[in-house]
Amino acid sequence: MTDSPLISRRTLMQAAAIAAPMALTPGMLSAAGKPALRDAMLLDPAIRYFNAANIAPTFRSVAAVHESETRAFQMDPSVERRALYPKAADALRARIAKRLNVTAQEIALVRNSSEANTVAVRGLALKAGDRIILTDHNHPSTWDSWKLRAEREGLDLHVVPVPVDAKSSQDLFDSIAAAVTPNTKAIFLSHMSNITGIIYPVAEIAKLAKAKNIWLHVDGAQTFGWMQLDLAALGVDSYSGSTHKWLMGPLEGGMLYVKQERQAELQPIMMSHGYWLTDPANLNTAQKYEISGQRDDPKLMAVAATLDVLDGVGDAAMDQAVRQRAASMRQAIADVSGTRLFGSGAAAITGPVITVAFPGKDVTALRANLWQAKIATAASKLEGGAIRFSPHIYNSDDDVAAVIEGLRRG
């Protein structure tokens, strides 16, 4: 492709140099590796950030790529130049599919987990009386969408309370299995609860669902990006993920996986001309779920830049580092007098979301005091008020020590 008259080769080379990613290595994932890792991020050095379950900060290189590509797009939004985006989308689907051990034909590029969840909610063919199993920890994008559909179509929406102090995967499995009836058509779960960090035994639930021809959709907003995932081995029918949480990528990026042999059972929620299609036949793949009108095309390059940073780490090392960071922080908080931690802490069912109540204390004031010390957290409504911490690889031992000191000062 020749240079645009508005974009010189020199300009593009300068932008590429600015955006050159730091290659993360497993050694940088430890608490001791914080300085090098934090220097690669846009996050204010003064902030100790514990809210990856909502939005994680991204890398300087990712922001630079997004800004550079957005400028290039706006300088030349011609159809001819935009022909590069379908190819970029193909490459990105293939990269994500490889990370998840599935095929590119099973990946749709959407705007976030909420959009992916809604596609799964709206796309299944159901009739009055069909049972849908949810939990009371499902994200509102799933819960509220199902509530609306159930009210309109007479569906049996069955909500299973999450046993927040479950001791084992079996406890979690049993709570779902007990809700299954002959009329059950779908089970929708959050892989990891954004409320307590409880992780459901998805593979075991998938075997149950498959045996009874029940569709299993898993909201992976809280696992995509840090957990080592093998969706083929898990056996789910569909799975969602966002790029702005644990992946530490740009806003408004996400993916929806739909098992190839079941795609005919899940209709898209919108049809139009193919957006990033390179071949009309791709409308017979998961790409049919990503049609939603004009997109932020430069986002494709930003997500790819995020993977460029993370590829040197490896999923297994990332998974181990995040679990260790969360486990050590959970133990440190447990040692603070007057705390009430949710969840048993059992390794197999506990992820990097730590929710803690402080009986008898003003939790709102306590959280405000933490923010005065530039410690960013999230509020929780559990037991009338709690604080949620979601540590990630950019958090250090010093960050955790600052939290503990803040909680003890109270």
TrEMBL record:
Signal peptide: 1-31
Keywords: Aminotransferase, Pyridoxal phosphate, Signal, Transferase
Domain Aminotransferase class V: 87-402
Keyword set includes Cell membrane: no
Keyword Hydrolase: no
InterPro entries according to UniProt: Aminotrans_V_dom, PyrdxlP-dep_Trfase, PyrdxlP-dep_Trfase_major, PyrdxlP-dep_Trfase_small, TAT_signal
Molecular-function GO terms, alphabetical: transaminase activity
PANTHER family: BLR1280 PROTEIN, L-CYSTEINE DESULFHYDRASE
Official protein name in the record: Aminotransferase class V-fold PLP-dependent enzyme
Organism in which the protein naturally occurs: Sphingobium rhizovicinum
Organism taxonomic ancestry: Bacteria, Pseudomonadati, Pseudomonadota, Alphaproteobacteria, Sphingomonadales
